Amino acid sequence: MSDIVIGLSKSARAGYSFDDVAVAPHRRTRDPEAVDLSWNIDAYSFDMPIVAAPMDSIVSPGTAIAMGQAGGLAVLNLEGLWTRYEDPSDAFAQIRAADPADAVPVLQRLYAQPIQPELIAARVQQMRDAGITVAGSLSPQKTHDLFRDVISAGVDVFVIRGTTVSAEHVSAELEPLNLKQFIYELDVPVLVGGVATYQSALHLMRAGAAGVLVGFGGGASHTTADVLGVRVPMATAVADVAAARRDYLDESGGRYVHVIADGAMGRSGDIVKAIACGADAAMVGSPLARAEEAPGSGRHWGMEATHASLPRGEVVEFPTLGTWQEVLFGPSHVSDGTMNLTGALRRSIALCGYTDLKSFQRVEMVRSH
């Protein structure tokens, strides 16, 4: 791919967002009912490739149970309000009552409350009692301190999620997390991200990650591009990381690492394009914030907005569209791709002539504008 010249001393590689690309129909079409949307991580199987992002505005123990019972996976934020307050209902009420434009100080104050390890155990146990696959997340900064509490609580899938996660973090003040040793010592699959490049993803795969999160997460609510000048063109990033997965599969003699698109998943068409670019699943936030059962009641935010000294997010507000089931499975009464996410994905795969997620990754793509 040719470089774009920015100036005499700097060039840039071209990158494409999901808005820049589209899938192209095949010569053959199929019935949507014939499409298989299932996928798996390690020994855990799911009926749909949609993962509810670890954001307090969408995932509570209750909505995680609902997602699991519907055949999906939801990740509970184990350093969020659910592990800082025995009853977080007042904290949620304060966020809902705040003017979205002035809500960041409210978030900073509420998230200054210390995490209580006993609440980690209680929330995980509540989900385990429901018989679902239990997934919980920590940021890289908190993993050192809390991972033993998380593992002893009994999570099935452990997620390390941050704006940017590397296998070679260097710190002059703290002993960095030895990710390879850490993953090796755990008995559960570990999903790690975000990453945006081939090389950084390959390093995480070599460290033992069962899955790699591509992107920064919190697409609708984060302001990382404005604050740090960092942004991921998601179509290019997913395709690059999928190439790392392919090469690592050969390098490792057959070890398959899952690629999960995390960020810019605002509509069903984005999920379609993420799978087409090579993702095995999509980590979804804002569409689920529109569900009636969402803890944020339409208010949506990520951990980036709670940082004590450099918040990189905001509280956004969405209209409530329907139930959790309707957002995931329909019927939809809107035409903008924010409802019936699985139905849209199933129909697109069928329209292009494929029958499952893995084969759909071979679909032809075009630059749309």
Structural description of this entry:
This protein has helices at residues 61-69, 89-97, 104-110, 117-129, 140-153, 179-185, 198-206, 224-228, 234-251, 268-277, 286-289, 324-329, 341-351, 357-360, and strands at 3-7, 10-13, 21-23, 39-41, 44-46, 50-52, 73-77, 135-138, 157-161, 190-195, 211-214, 258-262, 281-284, 299-300, 316-317, 365-367. Helix 6 links the parallel strand 9 (157-161) and strand 10 (190-195). It is built from 14 helices and 16 strands. The chain has a single domain (3-367), classed as Aldolase class I (TIM Barrel), CATH 3.20.20. It has an 8-stranded parallel β-barrel with strand order 6-7-8-9-10-11-12-13, surrounded by 5 helices. Strands 1-2 form a two-stranded antiparallel sheet. The chain is 34% helix and 17% strand. The protein is globular. The protein has 369 residues and is an alpha/beta fold.
Name the features.
16 strands, 14 helices, single chain, alpha/beta, TIM Barrel, 17% strand, two-stranded antiparallel ribbon
Put the structure in a nutshell.
This protein is α/β, with parallel strands linked by helices and 369 residues long.
Q: What is the number of beta strands?
A: 16
H/E element order = EEEEEEHEHHHEHEHEHEHHEHEHEEHHHE
Q: Which architecture does the CATH hierarchy give at level 2?
A: Alpha-Beta Barrel
The averaged pLDDT comes out at 90
Percent in helix: 25-40%
CATH class: Alpha Beta
What would you give as the CATH superfamily? Aldolase class I
Q: How many domains is the backbone divided into?
A: 1
Total number of helical segments?
A: 14
